[in-house]
Write a structure and sequence with these properties.
The protein is α+β, with helices and mostly antiparallel strands and about 200 residues long. It has 3 domains: about 40 residues, no CATH class; about 60 residues, N-terminal domain of TfIIb; about 80 residues, no CATH class. Helices cover about 35% and strands about 25% of the residues. The strands form 3 sheets. It has a 3-stranded antiparallel β-sheet with strand order 1-2-3. A 3-stranded mixed β-sheet has the order 6-7-8. A two-stranded antiparallel ribbon has the order 4-5. β2 and β3 form a beta hairpin. The longest helix has 19 residues. The chain starts with 5 loop residues before the first helix and ends with a strand. The structure holds iron/sulfur cluster. Iron/sulfur cluster binds next to α4.
Length: about 200
């Protein structure tokens, strides 16, 4: 290991410390205020070519996020300072959203076990969404009741129920209630926050 001599240290001190450079005539506002370290620093998100907005998916606080991407790939997620809810901040869970979205361990498929089968099958996510939609439609059609035997109009189904999670915010719960209750005729709609 090379030992720095006192003369080397003195030269480094004069080169890096701003006051000797200001005494030598450099402006304190620009070059004299920099060191070899700060001279090479770059803005953290300089490479981003796209900035989008999102909502943290982890809890019902609904903190707003900014999502930075380059060439179509996410490179950073941070709190949106324009939000009156989180004012640019994110808790540790929200700050980990980048990992949630980019982790190679993120699941890209579902496991499906057909009725009476003894093994699981790997299926694409789109397949699962289509199957859920088809089963909801079929169940609703099979169980929808327009009137009770006494003639009371009900327009409901008791064959479907919804249990929401804690990550649902007010707006999502509003839409769920509108769609499931008004659209499908579901009666049993509950949210994890009330369980
Ligand atoms: S950042 Fe934290 S507090 Fe905000 S929505 Fe996400 S999990 Fe909730």
């Amino acid at each position: 290991m090379t030992r720095r001599t006192i003369a080397d240290r003195a030269r480094g001190f004069l080169r890096e410390w701003s006051i000797p450079r200001q005494i030598a005539g450099q402006s304190h506002r620009d070059e004299a205020a920099r060191s070899s370290l700060s001279r090479d620093l770059r803005p953290r998100l300089e490479e981003a070519d796209t900035v989008g907005t999102g909502i943290c998916p982890y809890c019902a606080v609904g903190c707003a996020q900014r999502l930075y991407a380059r060439d179509g790939r996410l490179i950073h997620v941070e709190g949106d300072p324009r939000s009156p809810i989180n004012q640019g901040t994110l808790c540790p869970k929200g700050a980990a959203t980048f990992g949630l979205l980019t982790s190679p361990q993120r699941l890209q498929h579902v496991l499906y076990r057909a009725p009476h089968a003894d093994r699981w099958e790997v299926k694409p996510l789109d397949w699962a969404m289509d199957r859920i939609a088809a089963l909801v439609k079929r169940t609703r059609d099979e169980t929808f009741v327009r009137e009770l035997p006494d003639g009371t109009r009900v327009n409901h189904t008791l064959g479907l129920a919804s249990l929401g999670g804690a990550t649902l915010d007010n707006e999502e719960n509003y839409l769920i209630k509108k769609f499931f209750s008004g659209g499908l005729g579901m009666v049993w709609i509950e949210n994890q926050a009330r369980v």
